[in-house]
Design goal:
With 91 residues, the protein is mostly helical. 67% of the residues lie in helices and 0% in strands. The protein contains five helices and no strands.
């Protein structure tokens, strides 16, 4: 059975009333479908419009200030995610 066929069978088992979200499904299924989950999570993380993309660039620019030049790329990315999510949560 191909990975896609196995995914279709697994997806059919998930009820529409299930409290699991699409991203949670792919995080839980990452061991079972490593290639498909990687692609799905990348696809699902793409902003749906240019406004979100522009906000992301603005957050990156703010986080990448002179004060943060010594941060590793991973820490910088985490800082951007925290800043973005905290603003979204407050709205």
């Amino acid at each position: 059975m191909t990975a896609f066929a196995a995914y279709k069978a697994a997806a059919a088992e998930v009820s529409l009333e299930s409290p699991i979200t699409v991203t949670e499904f792919w995080f839980v299924s990452c061991d079972r479908f490593p290639t498909l989950s990687s692609l799905a999570l990348r696809y699902l993380s793409v902003p749906s419009n240019s406004v979100e993309a522009e906000r992301g660039v603005s957050q990156y620019t703010a986080a990448n200030s002179a004060q943060c030049q010594s941060m590793s790329k991973c820490n910088l990315a985490n800082q951007v995610i925290i800043a973005k999510n905290s603003k979204t949560a407050n709205n």
